Amino acid sequence: MNDLKYLSGFGSEFSSEDPRCPNSLPKSQNSPQKCPYGLYAEQLSGSAFTAPRHENKRSWLYRIYPSVCHKRFKPFLKGNITSDWDEIKPDPNQMRWNPFDFPSSNEKRDFVEGINTICGAGDPKLKLGLAVHVYSCNDSMKRRAFYNSDGDLLIVPQTGKLRMKTEFGILDVVPNEICVIQQGMRFSVQVTEASRGYILEVYGRHFSLPDLGPIGANGLANPRDFLTPVACYEDVEENFEIVAKYQGNLFLCEQNHSPFDVVAWHGNYVPYKYNLANFMVINSVSFDHCDPSIFTVLTCQSERSGTAVADFVIFPPRWSVQENTFRPPYYHRNCMSEFMGLIHGRYEAKEGGFLPGGATLHSIMTPHGPDVNCFEKASEEELKPCRIADESQGFMFESCLGLAVTKWGAQECQKLDPNYNKCWEGLKKNFTGPKN
Ligand SMILES: O=C(O)Cc1cc(O)ccc1O
Ligand SMILES: [Fe+2]
């Protein structure tokens, strides 16, 4: 199973049949009196039935058993997932986390047990807001599947390949790729080594591609580079656990068959992956530093136009050519929250201290920008065309909401770097004008 097949496109109407059951998709209707091969028809709705056509999302799944064939849910008390944003007092300080730990080798932890919430805002009950989590695991989910009833998960692996077995088929996701598993979709994560990464969860709308405006019809993340799996069922009648995240808490129920029993499906509500190396980078070729929104891969919009509950932005390898310009990120204060992670390499504004597998949070209006070394180097360097962020990939989850840090993020993970502010302490006074 190494040559997985994928369907290409973003937001397309796809259809897929497992080749072991030709003609398993009903023709020209969704719900025939009897489905081919004795399958059950089941609709998975990702939008209100009545949502406008351009936002209307649903898929039809043709499966061996309908999903309702399961026992009752009970609380599942593992990991540190939460949507309680009042665990600790607010703290506007710049925050930097050292790389998060892998599980110790004498402990077995699967993906769902290994999710820890760092920060977030809003309420899954109101379908508004987001959460940022990190995961760290060393065991595959065996006869266990997970689904999130609270929203969509954008998963950013940092170490280790994830084999995402979903109801729609199988996706392999390696570091420098991302995947999105949308609300309600069942999946199971298989790993082959200690694995770690980041998760952006959005409670409200689904992710969309940013508008391109004057860029034109092509560029940034192109729709054809988004890949969706093909139908691949298993007919296994054994005990399976279904873990659900519901209103910020985990629950577990059992059933006597595999949830990955979908023989055929069609629709526009699907899981997908994207390779960040396919991002077509657009940037300034004259002077000045573009705002990082120019690197937006996916956005989850709020009701306010042009304002995101969460943007997923990357800092990809590229040429830097601006003339007469301080080329790294400018010093700034932002009305948005900025959570950053590093997949590999180094981030141009902070060559030390911000490490792969770690993170930073610069909260609303909290000042930040290049560290002392970066400022001094970039103020003096000869402005030849040069590659930046080569062999590197940083990213940002940027949100219009104020993010609260959880108890795990602030205390229990023990990764906060108390010396983060020192990186700006040596900034000198270079002022040459009169005193008053
Ligand atoms: O703070 C950061 O490092 C992220 C960032 C990058 C950039 O190029 C411009 C603004 C910005 O917030
Ligand atoms: Fe910033």
TrEMBL record:
**CDD domains named among the record's database cross-references:** cupin_HGO_N
Q: Where is the Homogentisate 1,2-dioxygenase N-terminal domain?
A: 5-276
- What cofactor is needed? Fe cation
What residue spans carry the region label Disordered? 12-32
Cite the InterPro entries for this sequence.
Answer: HgmA_C, HgmA_N, Homogentis_dOase, RmlC-like_jellyroll, RmlC_Cupin_sf
Query: Which GO terms are recorded in the biological process aspect for this UniProt protein?
Result: L-phenylalanine catabolic process; L-tyrosine catabolic process
Q: Where does Fe cation bind?
A: 332, 338, 368
List of residues binding homogentisate: 347, 368
Task: Identify the keywords attached in UniProt to this record, alphabetized.
Answer: Dioxygenase, Iron, Metal-binding, Oxidoreductase, Phenylalanine catabolism, Tyrosine catabolism
**Domain Homogentisate 1,2-dioxygenase C-terminal: from-to ranges:** 278-431
According to UniProt, the reaction catalysed is: homogentisate + O2 = 4-maleylacetoacetate + H(+)
Does the keyword field hold Lyase? no
Please name the top-level EC class of this enzyme: oxidoreductase
Q: Does the keyword Transmembrane apply?
A: no
Q: Which Gene3D superfamilies match?
A: Jelly Rolls (2.60.120.10)
One term of GO molecular function: homogentisate 1,2-dioxygenase activity
Enzyme Commission number = 1.13.11.5
Give the domain of life.
Eukaryota
So, what pathway does this thing act in?
Amino-acid degradation; L-phenylalanine degradation; acetoacetate and fumarate from L-phenylalanine: step 4/6
> So where's the catalytic machinery, residue-wise?
289 (proton acceptor)
The UniProt family comment states: Belongs to the homogentisate dioxygenase family.
> This protein is called what?
Homogentisate 1,2-dioxygenase
* The species this protein was found in: Cryptolaemus montrouzieri
